[in-house]
Amino acid sequence: MKFATKLTLVVLLLLNFCVGLVSTILLQRNFDSMLTDSCGQYARMQISLCRSIRDSVQALPQPQDAAARVSGIRRAAESAGAYLGVQYARVYIREKDGTAVYKNLPEGFSEVDAVRALEGDPRRHLIYPVGDTHYAGFCMQMEAAGVHYQVFSVYDVSNVFVQRDIQRRSVLVMMLILLPVSAAAVWGVCTLLTRNIRRLESAAAAIAGGAYEQRSGIAGGDEIASLSRSFDDMAGTVEETIRTLQQNLHQREEFVAAFTHEIKTPMTTMIGYSDLLRSQSCDAETVHLAAGYIHAETSRLASLSHNLLMLLGLSREKAELQIMPFSLLLQRLQDSLGELPGGVRLAVEAGGECTVAVQPDLVLVLLRNLVQNAARAKPRDGRVVLCCEKRQRSSDAECAAPVLAVTVSDTGCGIPEKDLPHVTQPFYMVDKSRARSGGGSGIGLALCERIAALHGSRLSIESTVGVGTAVTVELPLTE
Amino acid sequence: MIHILVVEDERPISDLILLTLRQAGYRCSAVYDGLAAADWLEANTCDLVLLDIMLPGADGYEVLEYIRPTGIPVIFLTAKTQLHDRVYGLESGADDYICKPFAPAELVARVETVLRRCGRGKEKLSMWGVELDPVQRTVLSGGEPVELTPREFDLLLYLMRTPGVALYRDVLFERVWGTLPDSDTRTLDLHIGRLRQKLGWQDRITTVYRIGYRLEKEENT
């Protein structure tokens, strides 16, 4: 059952119960007061009736004569009935010793009822239902000519009961009308109030269905709004996580695809040429060409696998940093560099002496890669410049640490702006054929980026096509 | 002579394809990027294009769009071997799809198949008055049918696809029988002998010392 339906039913039940209770109480009180009014009126009427009977008895010529008294009372009662209307003179009179004197009770009343009333509490008035009619009975003591009489009179109070029934009926009718109207109103209000819950529900369902960007977005200060905010926060976190996971997955897929492509190209060459060589006798020129290609591609694969192993190894472990003078590192770089392609020279513009905390083998790989990349860009002035500068760590303003910013720059062909964000991705090559002919494996910069990250830095690359490229990496300085 | 355009940016692979196809008796031209391919097709025509997908300039799919109206059959040549790439390649109108790495013999067979299907290739291989139909697997010598066993037929087919080339006997055996030869290659010698006898090719199939066999080229081709 829907929440709004439940709420509606409960509210309707309560509403009806309250209205019913209140109207019952009101009706009862109204009825009681009307009855009391009527009874008071009739009590006064009884008093005046008794008075007129007593007066006429005392006015008798021989009030001591019992028979004369009886007939006198009867006459007085009848004349009062004629005067007031017969329904107002329904009366039973007896002497105190129980001798009935006069009886003019309506149909359905017996003497027994009257006697029982007179022998009970005289102050009470009693209601006697007779058929559809209700009567109120009153008792009274009267003394006339030294004799004590007991008078019991009844009056018709049906109209009070009729009134009550009419009111009851109209309340019932009103409630019958009220019920559907209030049901509709309550339903409307409940639907309005639970609207936000439904929004939340549909948002949750949409997210469950895969629309992770869905939000409930309910404004306000109530619990539902705050729930909605928490829900949206949660959905945001989930979306973020999923996006990260998908991105990782996508990157991994791209890496595998690029890697496969990179492997397949040399494989094709190697398989093709070796197959050619072993299946037929070729002339010396072809043999030389084939062997040359096989050798070049095998070397490329070897360097690729070396770099790749390094890259994969780096992603797992944390480097142990050693403290060593930077000049020593530069010395080792120049020793290991050998001849650069295209006769390019490395010019070192080192600042003052300083010590750095680095993993020396990895930093050597990093610097060598940067220098070789720069040399491959065919600098116009025939040199690659490596310069150092001490400064505060630029990326992290809060915990500024002194670093040595090492910049390798060239005046070569530069990198197009659209490629800049991608150059550190594995196997991303700006110009494939040039990178190949220069002996690039496609993961050099990815490796450099990883090594920089191990030293708490990252590669910052500035480049302009036709002007040159400058790559900067920050190494942690020690005092 | 059938003319094939090779569009492949990897120089070693391009050279390999040219070498293989020329040996199989095709005339070849090579270009190294997508735009050059479009320019070449603007000025020249050919019977088949071997097209790499990852090309600088314009990629293989774009070049294919350009080639399709000309009706020249296209074989994609690529390292992208995932199923959706292959489906996409074939749906975009390529006639076949060769995945890297490939063996040169496979390349020649695929090229032949596509050419035949498009009605551009030679239906039959013919040499020294012998006519070989690779589909019907029949051989006619001077117009007369010659009965060959399946192995003899395969051997002849392989020889006729690489005329004028001295073939190493162990590889020749492997290509035809599908397995490496046991220590000696007497079986191969036996089949060569039978072929020579059945076709009258005693001096056409020559024995090359320490290498194997060679089917001599016809002088006029």
3D architecture notes:
- The complex is a heterodimer of chains A (479) and B (221).
- Chain A is α+β, with helices and mostly antiparallel strands and 479 residues long.
- Chain A has helices at 3-58, 66-84, 111-119, 158-193, 195-208, 223-279, 284-316, 326-337, 360-376, 432-437, 444-454, and strands spanning 90-95, 100-104, 126-130, 133-144, 147-156, 322-325, 345-349, 355-358, 383-392, 402-410, 460-464, 468-478.
- Chain A folds into 3 domains: 3-171, Beta-Lactamase (2-Layer Sandwich), CATH 3.30.450; 217-317, Signal transduction histidine kinase, dimerisation/phosphotransfer (DHp) domain (Helix Hairpins); 318-478, Histidine kinase-like ATPase, C-terminal domain (Heat Shock Protein 90, 2-Layer Sandwich), CATH 3.30.565.
- In chain A, the strands form 2 sheets. In chain A, strands 6, 7, 8, 9, 10, 11 and 12 form a 7-stranded mixed beta sheet that branches. A 5-stranded antiparallel beta sheet of chain A has the order 2-1-5-4-3, with helices on both faces.
- Chain A is rod-shaped, with a radius of gyration of 58 Å.
- The two termini of chain A are 73 Å apart.
- The model of chain A has no long low-confidence stretch (mean pLDDT 82).
- Chain B is of the alpha/beta class and 221 residues long.
- Chain B folds into 2 domains: 3-117, Response regulator (Rossmann fold, 3-Layer(aba) Sandwich); 125-215, Arc Repressor Mutant, subunit A (Orthogonal Bundle).
- Chain B has 8 helices and 12 strands.
- Chain B has helices at residues 11-23, 34-43, 60-67, 83-91, 104-117, 150-161, 169-177, 186-199, and strands at 3-7, 27-31, 48-52, 74-78, 96-99, 125-127, 130-133, 138-141, 144-145, 167-168, 205-208, 212-215.
- A 5-stranded parallel beta sheet of chain B has the order 2-1-3-4-5, with helices on both faces.
- The model of chain B has no long low-confidence stretch (mean pLDDT 81).
- Chains A and B meet through helix 6, helix 7 and helix 10 of A and helix 1, strand 10 and helix 7 of B.
